[in-house]
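Q: Here's a chain of 118 amino acids. Please give me its 3D structure as tokens.
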Amino acid sequence: MAVTKTLTNAVPFNLNNKVQEWDLTMQYKQGNKSADPPTYFETSYNAFIPSSQVSPKTGETIINFTPKAEASWTKAEIVALFPTAQWDTIFASQYDSVITNPPDLPVADNSYVIPDSS
């Protein structure tokens, strides 16, 4: 089953009527809730994307986007700001560890009898 990604939150931070930073949330979903065993998993990722930032490694300024008016943005432009390649990898790993290859859990032995002697 394919992964579904949905933009669930987009809050612009404006200065001089232009977006300078975005607070964005993307929800990822995959699987079937009614399957036995269930195959459904969902999570959300959040990012604050400034128009520019200084790289801690190089000290160079990285331009993420050119500030412009809120009304000028399209949904596709906003979604393109997300680090989706990174999040896709993280989600696939989480899905694998939770759904595909979950850890073995201990099983209760309700028939255990407490020994009589010490």
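Q: Can you summarize the key feature?
A: Residues 4-100 form one domain.
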